[in-house]
Amino acid sequence: MKNLLKNSVVVFVITIVLLLIIPLPPFLLDVMIIINISLSMIILLITMNIKEPLEFSIFPALLLVTTLLRLGLNVSTTRNILSNQGSSGQVIRAFGDFVLQGNVVVGFIIFLIIVLVNFLVITKGTERVSEVAARFTLDAMPGKQMAIDADLSSGLINEQEAKIRRYKIQKEADFYGAMDGATKFVKGDAIISIIVTAINFIGGTIIGMVQSNMAFNQVLAVYSIATVGDGLVSQVPALLISTATGMIVTRAVSEGSLNEDVSAQFLAQPKAIMITGFVMIILMLVPGMPKLQLAIMAVALVAAGFRLEQKVKLAAVRNQEIAATAMMEESTQPAADEESYYRDVNNVYSLINVEPIEMEFGYSLIPLIDENSGGKMINRIVIFRRQYAQDMGFVIPSVRLRDSSSLNTNQYIIKIRGEEVARGEILVDYYLALEPPALSGEVDGIETVEPAYGIPSKWIRPENKEMAEIYGYTVIDPLSVMLTHLSETIRQHAYELLGRQEVMQLLENVRKHSAELVDELFPNQFTYSSFQKILNNLLKEGVPVKDMETILGTIVDSIPTTRDMDVITENIRIALKRTITRMFCDGGQMKVLTLDAELEKNIIGSMAKGEQGVYLALSPDVMQSVIGQLGEQIKKFSDLDQKPVILTSQVVRLYFYRLIEQFYPNVYVLSFNEIANNIQIQAVGNITI
């Protein structure tokens, strides 16, 4: 039955739209009017019977659907009244006869009173309450969030309960904003009902007297009944919906789609459905009402409500049995509190595990991460992991995501091996606009710096997004800002994430198609720890380790002459020259900075060997001069679509890289032997001694 109701909602809405176009015969029009009255009664009874607002969170969407239904019926009834000499079904005629009671003046007065009560009292009051509730709810959000933080700090609630309460507050604020706008549907519906009634009476009078040559008394009798009946048929459901709106104006919001919520929340109220069926039976006692249609609707509602109620009772009994069984099992087991749990030394080891990659964020960023709220962060991380594996040949570990009450609501931090390495702050309801080198115009926004690359930026409102793009800004959504920062941080620290287990997994993957090469090298000729160090050296400088066969083959060729890991790493870089060239080549050209020959001689002459290997012993003046020149020369790459590259001889490359990496970690140092022969090198600057 749930699947039937899910599909029927879509069909029902499409049918409502068709009512505005397709004429309906009186019999089907009576059925639709009865459905409209029944639906309005169900909504009203549900709003009166629910215990918490969250139980009927689809109400704002239902306001639009029910309003559209009444407008469609108004169009259909007006078409029949004006084209069939006041005949538009038994329901309208029964309502008109019942109210008029043979006196047109009294009937119209009663009808106007009902319309004015709905418009001036209920609708206007509901609209005002919605506006006040929306404003007060938004104003109270900071206080509620502070109360949650206070309860969390004092230990009254845990982080999971705090997360649920914050999520509920956010959703309530969204709901009240939706209700503030949805009440305008009710107001507009009341106004259009008055207009349609006037059109029916005036248009019917003109048609009856001019086209049908009817007498004025006859026209008055025919069209007054149809007009009053049509107005009442429209106003009674509108009155019920307006009353329901006033009751639920402070209710909460929905978490699912309209179809899912309708099927779940309507079927969870069998008593409301049964009571509506009994009301339909009472309406059969009204003289002139279509008893067949009412009887069918009444039987269907009562039967459906009774069947649903039996299912609800059966489910409640089963839940009680399950709970009783669980309590019995729990009572038979010894109670184990936290203190007794950690008496076992083995359980204490679970506290010292360190996550390879961890990301903590404030609660305002939860909607970006939580999949239940529509967050796509996890899917984007999966895509990045796949792309990084294809580019670099290394599969990054899983990223642990968790919220933290110690952070600012808009902040997040990234941890590698349990320690913070990056931090950022984003605004969920804004876009980040990266400033271009040459601005053609300014947009209003909050000044900031892009967290991944340090580019001057602005947080702008969504309505300013198109204008910012016209002015040349690069506009990025908040999720992409956070994911870019995470991905760049992972790229910079990938060598720290490559442990012994990851090395073994890489070798097992190579063993599937080159088992002889792996067996030849490990473990007799080369150790796993030495191989891990080589891979770490390559990843640290951004060199992909995807071509594992070339890497292993180069190691096999190098170990007869040297056991120095640095020398072997340099040989591997030369073997991977095509891969390295591709990373920095643009259209067959590579723009680089070069070192003066005298400077290279000075560097070679300052090499000294210590316990930790070879290092540079440059004088402070030379070192300061090199670092200062390098800072100025790197600025030339800001206008180029290429990463900063310094080209040196093979002897100098490694040591010059170690000299500048702490000052400029994003600058790449290559040797001439690592560049493919078919590449044209263009020097954009030179560093001298």
UniProtKB/TrEMBL annotation:
UniProt cross-references to InterPro entries, sorted A to Z: FHIPEP_1 (IPR042194), FHIPEP_3 (IPR042193), FHIPEP_4 (IPR042196), FHIPEP_CS (IPR025505), FlhA (IPR006301), T3SS_FHIPEP (IPR001712)
Transmembrane residue ranges: 7-25, 31-50, 57-78, 98-121, 190-212, 232-254, 266-286
Subcellular location: Cell membrane
Membrane topology: Multi-pass membrane protein
Keywords: Bacterial flagellum biogenesis, Bacterial flagellum protein export, Cell membrane, Cell projection, Cilium, Flagellum, Membrane, Protein transport, Transmembrane, Transmembrane helix, Transport
The keyword Transport is assigned to this record: yes
Gene3D superfamilies: FHIPEP family, domain 1, FHIPEP family, domain 3, FHIPEP family, domain 4
Chief location category: membrane
Pfam families, per database record: FHIPEP
GO BP of this protein: bacterial-type flagellum assembly; protein secretion
Gene Ontology CC annotation, any one: plasma membrane
Family: Belongs to the FHIPEP (flagella/HR/invasion proteins export pore) family.
Role according to the record: Required for formation of the rod structure of the flagellar apparatus. Together with FliI and FliH, may constitute the export apparatus of flagellin.
Name of the protein this chain belongs to: Flagellar biosynthesis protein FlhA
Organism field: Lacrimispora saccharolytica (strain ATCC 35040 / DSM 2544 / NRCC 2533 / WM1) (Clostridium saccharolyticum)
